[in-house]
Amino acid sequence: MSPLTLRLLLLACLAILPWAQSNQYWLHVFSVALIGVILALGLQLLVGMAGILSLGQGAFYGVGAYAAAILAANWRLPFLICVLCGGVIAAAASLLLIPIVRLKGSSLAVATLGFSIIAHLVMLNEDWLTGGSIGLMDIPRPTLLGFDVGGERPFYYV
């Protein structure tokens, strides 16, 4: 079997999974697992192809997620704009690491780990911005082109 056929078969299995699995809990687990796959692919790109050992990519995921959630909860912007702005804000936050990229080896890993710890502490302790350890409340259900994608099955496809 060719690699393209295997990929298409995997894609078809992932596409029919929400219809084959009716348990909402497992759909949520699959959605979160696929988000983890996206994060792992980013790490593979960074470590495997670029050869840079970074331990701070989770901080950018958190910055983008919190930015999108804050825009949705406080400013009531549409879902798609919040996601795009979250990505742009996470990319802008990556500019803070420009001086760190010149480091080599374990120094780079420790510096990016430090950035990740700082981002975690800000997210955990700045109640006025992130809701602290409780988190953000009253985030509206996402809608995409007028369709509610807040349930487990529609959000799986998002």
Characterise the protein shown here:
The protein has 158 residues and is mostly helical. Helix content is 69%, strand content 3%. It has helices spanning 3-20, 24-49, 57-75, 79-94, 106-125, 127-130, 152-157, and strands spanning 143-144, 147-148. It is globular. It starts with a helix and ends with a helix.
Summarize the structure.
Helices cover 69% and strands 3% of the residues. The chain is mainly α and 158 residues long. A two-stranded antiparallel ribbon has the order 1-2.
Note the run of SSEs as H and E.
Answer: HHHHHHEEH
Cα Rg: 18 Å
Largest sheet: 2 strands, antiparallel
**pLDDT averaged over residues:** 91
Shape: globular
Structural class: mainly alpha
Low-confidence stretches: none
Helical fraction:
55-70%
Distance between the termini: 29 Å
Strand content range: under 5%
Quaternary structure state of the chains depicted: single chain
Number of strands: 2
